[in-house]
Amino acid sequence: MYTLSCNDTPQLTFFAITKNASSAIVHNLQLNDRHRVLDMYWHTTDENQHPSLFHLSEFQKQLLAKDRFCVVQHPYDRFASAWRYLHRDYARKSNELEFKSELDFAQWLVDHIKAITETSSCGAFFAPQWYWAKHCNIVLNKSSLDNDYEELMTKYFGEADYSLRKVNVSKQITTRLTDKHKLLVQEFWHDDFEYLGFEY
Q1: CB distance 17 to 79 below 8 Å
Q2: What residues contact 26, with CB distance under 8 A and at least 6 apart?
Q3: How far apart are CA 52 and CA 176, in angstroms?
Q4: I want to staple 177 with a disulfide (CB 3.0 to 4.6 A). Which of 18, 103, 157, 181 is the partner?
């Protein structure tokens, strides 16, 4: 979570949702922080690098801006991105997990994310997007992020370089998900479908 200030006045707070272009946005914010377009304050905790409002102290909450934004995407696409991220990580670092096919790994990921709670640091990584978005009055969709992000930042901080460099790009596998996988994603991330308006 990052609060962006101008002239010592908080203007925007960015709630960074995992696997939703957070790295690209943070990179851009750091760039504009160095160029003195804005000042950036990072809210974090020992337990969680992607905190929601629940994790902050009362003092940290006082530092948040009134206007808060986040980025969301369709849960199937986010699942595919998480799948690719973990597949790459485990393929490189672990000899314990062997999968006969990509869908075997997808099944493992479904079982994995269902087994952890959103109160833990890992659980927050896989929490529904609504876990963060419920605290934001500005919700951007990843499908139109480049233009929407530039318009938002220009409105609050004026003209600058708000182009997003692609970071941690994940190859999409959405078309390879079976109906069974989609049903499990619908169950685990039910709040995203219900409250963010994504179609099943």
Answers
A1: no
A2: 2, 14, 16
A3: 31
A4: 181
Q: What is the pTM of this model?
A: 0.83
CA–CA separation, 192 vs 127, rounded Å? 10
Residues 12-60: tens digit of each pLDDT: 999 999 889 998 999 999 999 999 999 999 887 666 667 788 888 888 8
Supply the DSSP string of the chain, one letter for each residue: -EEEEETTEEEEEE---TTSSHHHHHHHHHHHHHTTS-EEEE---SS-SS--GGGS-HHHHHTS-SSEEEEE--HHHHHHHHHHHHHHHHHHH-SS---SSHHHHHHHHHHHHHHS-TTSHHHHHTS-THHHHTT-SEEEEGGGHHHHHHHHHHHHH-S---PPPP-S-----GGG--HHHHHHHHHHTHHHHHHH----
Cβ neighbours of residue 23 under 8 Å, at least 6 residues apart? 167, 168
Query: Of the ranges 76-80, 124-128, 159-163, which is most confident?
Result: 159-163
Alpha-carbon span 59 to 64, nearest angstrom: 10
Q: Where are the domains of the chain?
A: 2-191
Per-residue burial over 47-64, b if 16 or more Cβ lie within 10 Å, else e, is: ebebbbbebbeeebeeeb
